[in-house]
Amino acid sequence: MPLTLATWNINSVRLRLPIVRRFIGEYQPDIVCLQETKCPDDQFPTADLRALGYEHIVVNGQKGYHGVAVLSRLPIASVERGLFCRHGHSRHLAVTLGEAAGSASGLTIHNFYVPAGGDEPDPEINDKFAHKLHFLDCMEAAPGNGTLRSQRAVLVGDLNIAPLETDVWSHKALLSVVSHTPVEVERFGRVMRAGAWIDAMRQCIPAEQKLYTWWSYRSPDWAAADKGRRLDHVWVSQDLGAAVDDIRVIKEARGWDRPSDHVPVLATLQL
DNA sequence: ATGGTCGGGTGCCGA
C-alpha cells in the first residue's frame, strides 16, 4: 500500500488555511506534518481540516510561536510530545499509527521543528544558537531513551540545517551563516548516525543536484534569485530505506498566494 | 557588503 506523507513549515496555520486546502486538494497526502503553526491548541482549525478527510489530528501548539501538528487519514494509536527543548517550546510531536492503519500499522512519525538559532553562530554570545545546539544534542541522546531508534520510523520536519554543499545556493557564502555552519552540520550528522537514519530526500534525488525547500521572504524575486536552502527533511529508519518510492519538493507552493517561505516535501512509501 | 520581508501580538521579537 502506498502511504503519502508531507512535511511543511506553514508559518501560521490559521493564515495559510487557503494554501493548506490547495495543497491537500492537489496532492491528497495521507499524513501532513506541519511546523510553525503559531496557534494555541484550542484555536487550531481542527474542524476545517477534519472536513478535508483528516479524522485524526494531533497538535502541540503554543501562543504566537513554534507549534507542530500531525493530520492523518489513518488512525493514530499513540502520541508523544517530546522533551527536546529546554525552554519548553512546542517543537516535537510523535504519533504511532494503529492496527487499523493496515500495512502502515505500527509506523512511528516524528515531527520536529528545530530552533532556527538566531543570526550569530557563536553559542557564547548568542543563546538562540546555544539552544539550537542543545536541542540537537537532545535529539541525538533520545535513542538512548528508546524513542528514535524504533524500527518502522519516519522523522520529518523543519530541522533548520542545510547539511550538504548542494543544499544551499552558495556553500562558500553560507559557511558562516546559521543553518549551514560546520558546527551545526556536524551535530546534524551526529543525530542522523545516532538513530541510523536514512536521508530519504537524498536517496531519491542525487546529492549532485541542488535541492531547496526554503526561499527567504526578503528576496524581491525569490524564483529568479533562487537563493534557497534545504532546511526541511525526511528521514526513515533503515528497515524503510527500500520502501521510499518517491520524494517531491512542491516548489510551486512558494509562488502561491500569501505563501509560507517553506514549501511542502511529499514522500511516498510502499508499505 | 548590506539589507531586504514576513507573522504574531503588542508597542518588538523571532524567523
TrEMBL record:
Site (Important for catalytic activity): 232
Binding residues annotated for Mg(2+), in chain numbering: 9, 36, 158, 160, 261-262
Cofactor descriptive note: Probably binds two magnesium or manganese ions per subunit.
One of the Pfam families matching this protein, by short name: Exo_endo_phos
Keyword Hydrolase assigned: yes
InterPro entries: AP_endonuc_1 (IPR004808), AP_endonuclease_F1_BS (IPR020847), Endo/exonu/phosph_ase_sf (IPR036691), Endo/exonuclease/phosphatase (IPR005135), ExoIII-like (IPR037493)
UniProt keyword annotations, A-Z: Hydrolase, Magnesium, Manganese, Metal-binding
Family membership noted in the UniProt record: Belongs to the DNA repair enzymes AP/ExoA family.
Protein name: Exodeoxyribonuclease III
